[in-house]
Amino acid sequence: MQSQPLSLMLNFKLNGTEKTSRVFKETSLLNLLRNDFELNSPKYGCGLGECGACTVLVDGIAARACVMPATGADGRSISTIEGLGTPGHLHPIQQAFIDEQAAQCGYCLSGMVMMSVALLSRNPDPTEADIHRELSGNLCRCGTHVEIVKAVQRAAVLMRHAA
Questions:
Q1: How many domains does the chain have?
Q2: pLDDT digits (tens, 9 = 90+) for 102-159
Q3: What is the predicted pLDDT for the residue at 141?
Q4: Domain holding 39: CATH number?
Q5: Average pLDDT over residues 6-27
Q6: Which of 51, 83, 115 is the last residue of a domain?
Q7: Separation in Å, CA 28 to CA 33, 87, 102, 136
Q8: Which long-range contacts does 72-75 make (Cβ < 8 Å, 24+ apart)?
Q9: What's the angle, vertex CA 14, arms to CA 106 and CA 150, rounded to 5?
Q10: In this predicted structure, what is the pLDDT of residue 157?
Q11: 109 & 156 share domain
């Protein structure tokens, strides 16, 4: 009887750059991103995929990194907030969150921004109800929901004007 390998080699794109990493089969994508690549934006919140603090994009689709096995990244494109813009040239969503002061403690911010990126890539002109529905699985304990919705609305306008 042949045993399963303890670790696997992954090849994937991370924020536009080709990466290779060896991971244990049990490793979550969140642990791979934070521990191996020192990316701090995806946060460990609940560990159950229910709070949204760990949200990243996998091939452009929002995913909860805490419950996704790192092996699921193999051959795919992973995006975190670190890959959206630069300090000198912010992504419109980042700029809109700043303009609307849509953060207090910042713990949920990365997940909110990444969910907003996913929403606006599918729907460039969302209604307020669309935004609420999309972000309903991302928890903010500081109560900045009104500002976050305004930021997504502003980002939609900025992105339409930039196109």
A1: 2
A2: 988 889 999 999 999 999 999 999 999 999 999 999 998 888 889 999 999 999 999 9
A3: 87
A4: 3.10.20.30
A5: 95
A6: 83
A7: 9, 29, 29, 23
A8: 72/29, 73/10, 73/12, 73/29, 73/32, 74/8, 74/10, 74/11, 74/12, 75/11, 75/12
A9: 35
A10: 97
A11: yes
